Amino acid sequence: MKPSNDQILELFNKLDEKKLGYLDIDTISNALKNQFQNQNIHINNRNYYAKELVRICDKTNSGQVTLQEFKDFILEKDLQLQSLFKKISQNGKYIGLEKLETSVKEAGYDVSSKDLQSLLAEIDYNKDGVIDYSEWRDFLLLLPHKPTFINIFKFFSTVSNVDFNSDANALPSSDTFNFTLRLKYLLAGGVAGAVSRTATAPLDRLKVLLQTDTHNHRAYSHWVSIKKGVNIIYNDGGIRSFFKGNGLNCLKIIPESALKFYVFETSKDLLSDYYKVNKDDLGISSRFLAGGMAGLISQFAIYPMETIKTRLMAQIKSHPKARPSLTVDIESNISTTVRNLYRENGIRAFYRGCIPALIGINMSKTNFE
Questions:
Q1: Number of Cβ within a 10 Å radius of residue 115
Q2: Which backbone phi and psi does 65 adopt, to 5 degrees?
Q3: How many helices (H) and strands (E) does the chain have?
Q4: Rounded to an integer, what distance in angstroms lies between the CA atom of residue 100 and that of residue 90?
Q5: Fewer CB atoms < 10 Å away: N or C end of the chain?
């Protein structure tokens, strides 16, 4: 049964606390904070959802939502919610835990039964163990986005902090996941990146040495060159020498990832505002542009760290077969490498090779979703 005019008017008046006769971003945000905290409509990220509600409802782009515009939005949302409820419910009457688990898995998420039980309890306000349509609608009625599985599960996660598997999305959307959850994913990605880079650090060091060594190896096979490279690195400082520059390599992971996804999400926000569409509905070209900007800016920001890391990995203490310009007489470290680079060509020395690197990043890592 669709919401009646009286029910829609009651909800509109609840949001319109100041009795202005219209809704705007501040009005909706304050109402969500003051009136809906402990009720059946749950919105955690108030400012974002208030902004999105106004953008979706406001057909005249006046910044104000009239009662008629709000009514049209509610009735359309009700039809969308009904359609999806019928697809995932048991005989169109209710959604139980088993059906919810099946729907989550079909959407590409791996969520434990315990988490789903908590999620079901959040929606099931009459505590009968299942979700009927009125509970489903009340919970999602103010969701601005189209109620697809992904949008709804992201919305659920802001309410219950359910730890959905990030494999379904490259990174949880910054507009629907709260700060704590986003930080958790960022740290988890940083730790995973640090572990993987540490595991491959010896190969990376060997690769850089072979790339920068100008000694003539034509008389030797590739395997002999690799063996000589390994011996040079080991003689340079034992096992620890294979991990030179790895600390800096790991250190740049989190700021690079944070900046990359911040720019990506911000670019999508700007593009969605420009094209007047939801972020999730942006086309391939818009996502390509947002991803390109994210890759360019993040790579440019951390490029000095990349230069220092590479120089550290290429340096070898005095050795007859090492490239002269990369030979050092004392144990190199970050501070001495930074000073030496600055003496060579000032700030510009830290951005050598930056343009080819940015072109490569822009061509290979422009789309995150």
A1: 17
A2: -105, 120
A3: 15, 4
A4: 10
A5: N
